[in-house]
Amino acid sequence: MSRRSLILFLLVFPAAVEAQSDTFWLSEPWYFDAGPPAITDAARFLPTPFRNSILLKRYIRDERFYLQRKMTDDTLAVDAIFERAMLLSDGDIGAALLTATFAVMDHRRIGVKVPLLGTVYLPLTTEDDSLFKVRRTHLPKRVLTDRGKAVDKDKLQHFFGSAYLAYVSNSSVFAEFIGDLVEEWEERFVLGGRTDGRDKAANAKGRAFGKTLQSDPGSLPSDILWP
Question: How far apart are CA 139 and CA 152, in angstroms?
Answer without folding.
Answer: 9
